[in-house]
Amino acid sequence: xxxxxxxxxxxxxQGAVYAALALSLVIxxxxxxxxxxxxxxxxxxxxxxxxxxxxxxxxYWLGFGAALATGxxxxxxxxxxxxxxxxxxxxxxxxxxxxxxxLVLQGLAGMIWTNEPHSFGYPMDYRGRFSAADWxxxxxxxxxxxxxxxxxxxxxxxxxxxxxxxxxxxxxLSGVRVGLMLTAGWAIASxxxxxxxxxxxxxxxxxxxxxEVFIFAIAAAxxxxxxxxxxxxxxxxxxxxGMSYVSGYAGPELTTLAALxxxxxxLSIRPDGLFSRPTARKx
Amino acid sequence: MxxxxxxxxxxxxxxxxxxxxxxxxxxxxxxxxxxxxFPLAAVAAFAAIVALTSVTGxxxxxxxxxxxxxxLAIAGLQLLIGYSGQIxxxxxxxxxIGAYTVALLVLNQPALPLWLNMIITVVLSCGAGLLVGAAxxxxxxxxxxxxxxxxxxxxxxxxxxxxxxxxxxxxxAFSTRGAPASLAGVxxxxxxxxxxxxxxxxxxxxxxxxxxxxxxxxxxxxxxDDESAAGLAGIPVGRTKVIAFVISAGAGGLxxxxxxxxxxxxxxxxxxxxxxxxxxxxxxLGGLGSMWGAFFGAVALVYIELWGEDLAHALSLDxxxxxxxxxxxxxxxxxxxxxxxxxxxxGMASSLAGSVRRGR
Lengths: 283, 360
What we know:
By secondary structure, chain A is mostly helical. Chain A has helices at residues 2-32, 39-57, 60-86, 91-113, 132-154, 156-166, 168-173, 178-200, 211-224, 229-249, 255-269; strands at residues 118-119, 204-205. Chain A has a single domain, classed as ABC transporter involved in vitamin B12 uptake, BtuC, CATH 1.10.3470. Chain A is built from 11 helices and 2 strands, in the order H-H-H-H-E-H-H-H-H-E-H-H-H. Chain B is globular, with a radius of gyration of 21 Å. Chain B: This is Branched-chain amino acid transport system permease protein.
């Protein structure tokens, strides 16, 4: 029973990280119909900036702030410079552009900070059954989700962003600057991505550190249904728990296969994810 | 759409002195039935490869061989993505299956000839493709991409789970017979290997090209353009999707088998996400929707990395910069191609050829 509780707690804190990254994918997918494969690279650069800033100033929290700010800028720049020109063409084009960006940023990270791992600390104590660092992960992702919900639900900016995503033409006619709203969506998503990166990277940071986390995040987003932020959160937690149990009871090498199994089982029952509404389409 | 013929006609058009009769030759070539045309083109290509490797050294032979197997894998992906419109980000997984099948067969059944190993590989990877295809047939777009990506990451971790059988993270190393003794002075081992890989590749390509030129190919393209309309027109949507997946998995497995044969090893690290993404990138770089795109993509994949290394040497760059130069270059190229020339290198080549023809 003790092991079960440990695995559950561990799964929850891991799941929070997947949920945050999945959330960042879903926000972008909702707004622009693009799965942003460059998300782990945007987060990676943010974490490296945090590393550099904390090294220079000696403060984890200054680095943390720098990471979020970097995420904001990178997300907005990506939408403006790379996604807008291919927007509305085939979905594959946008996927390829983000894959290209992924390669470029990972390569640049290797060039600037080398491919060797640097040690990168936790914000607080990470030892023990459910450590302060675990609480921090769960708490910060929960806070981010609540803030996001508040933004979309209760602020004029959120309303405009939703309008721009769901009815771009109607929104434009009502005076919403649709392009600006899409940029804002990418920026917010990349801030959440940067948060996920900060939680996922310790104890070491190297150019491929977020690859595996990203795979689980995309699995979480798909399981939850790419259109639904709550689905992303639930998918992240589901995946975190499932993989923690598999890792604990069956062996850690099987975690990625477990993610695949969860994905296949969920999608064969609901091909558009757990929390998607069935869509009708004109032929 | 299948432009083996396009290229034949342009190369003949561009031949010395052939202004007036050239189009008729091209037309006559295109009028040949696919079952004659593709094998003829393959025989010509094989002769060209044998001629080419007879003047190059061992390193270049291996590189020519790698262009071959990458081309096969990318052509299989072309059939899946470019023709049937299903995005797979996990095709490296089938190359993984192919490579490990050959490695296990050579290690455990050394008496079996290579061609039989290849056939067993194709059967096994088609079987794997059937499983995956059937499990994912109802998925579309990003959902399929996510599921296949998880496959690409999950499968190689099996090697760590079963280290006695699959060699753990070091993988399996084996040696194959080189050129037969009777040809000892005539061809070198690497020439023989490159020729074997290209023979396999070309046979695979003939099959892929024939399929995509035929009824099944038309069905796939109808599916890609509009799934609901294709269904209404009586095309069995699910079955066609699964068949495309099976064929494409077979090509991927065979490509992996060729890679293992060429390198003499199968290691999990060479079948990571990077491989799957590189295959997709090369496909788009070469050009979607044409089998020639696979050729350009494979050449780009092998030689861009090489040029990157040479360039880094020439400029005597810092090793951190040098190691990461090819990947950055590849990424930049990918973005530029999509932004500036969405039809890829093949589209670029054919519109250049078109403007040359018009200009004359």
